[in-house]
Amino acid sequence: MSDLQAESTEVLQRLIRFNTVNPPGNERAAIQYLDDYLRAAGFETEQLAAVPERPNLIATLDSGAPGPVLGYLSHVDTVLANPAEWQHDPWSGDVDSDGFLWGRGALDMKSQTVGEVVAAAALGHSGWRPGRGALKVFVVSDEETGGEVGARFLTEQHPDKVRCDYLLNEGAGAAFELDGTRYHGVCCGEKGIFRLLLRARGHAGHASLPRNGENALAKLAPVLSRLAEAQPGVTLTEPPRQLAAALTGTPAGDVDADTVAETLKRLAGVDPVLPALVEPMFGVTLAPTMAHASDKINVIPSEATLKVDCRVPPGLGPDVALAALHEVLGETAELVEISFSEEVYGYLSPPESPLMDEIRTYLRKHDAEAVPVLLPGYSDSSWFRRAFPELIAYGFFPHHQMPLTQVAPLVHSADERISVRDLGQATEFFHSLARTLLA
Ligand SMILES: [Zn+2]
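That is the input. Now the predicted structure with zinc ion docked in place:
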């Protein structure tokens, strides 16, 4: 066992024992612990807070010479956990005899916080300093409810303190195997969120005389069944285009809907779980989630609404969301009025960069390949990419032992745990990356 594995295991156990379930978060004690840890290693540290109990940590190791700023970003808040559903207490940090460390945040994402922080501190303690530029460690609060007092606060209120050229954050890194090759995703962007409100109108009436009114709720039925049956066609952006190219051996320029179908078919052959994880990268998704009609059981509703959670590939906007909706609804779109209740663009970093080259080189040493992917959901990288358009930000934490099909279902679920060997190897990755990129 390497020194970095032993150290990162101990620090992750300690970090998991801070209960940082958000809401309310209460990240202050965890942030203070990491602040002390990095300051002892020679980092200059500063805490910035929008709310006193929820500070954010910025730790800097500066070369004093001009050059790139490499940022290691993570959040210490977690989603909730119900101990009754777990085999180990979610705040125990237990390590079992198979080498798994248990607890809420073991994957999302206290493990990456620890990988980044322990790597940075080991560099600091060893006397290493960047040859140029600076290494900055950002540990933030409040990611799980959107980053209002975390990454959003930092990038909007203190951009000069968190400006960077390269950023590593959560989003990908677990592997899957296809035709004898092991592929690790590197997350290059997050999808945008364009939430739709569909409203049907009718006439109210007494429910004892059903033919007397015009039931707005019934008008939603054909709309809802279309949404249940179909998803929009393929809308390609660069990272998934390269993913499909790599997995099918097709030149990136020739990737089309057929290549995407072939990609998903191949992944289904590996594990039936994989297509559901990968398919949303290839286009717009529509998920009806909330409906409302009459407030009284004996009144025929004059109005009925349906909310649809719509996710759009990064860089694309409401026009693409609307086109996808019309594609699925067809003529049933005439039954409803359509408007947006929320519009948030997704952001993208180019999949080719010096940072990607370093990740690729690292993975090849472990006989694996890097493939660009998109995150169907949200991460704090969005706030950083929005604030710094030139930034290269990727989501990457390498898992060599636990495959993607094991990691993905455990995030936000009961029995969240990580292989301590993965934790140690990821810490070694963050350790070597800073030395190479800031040499
Ligand atoms: Zn997370």
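The pocket of zinc ion is lined by residues 75, 108-109, 143, 170 (CB under 6 Å).
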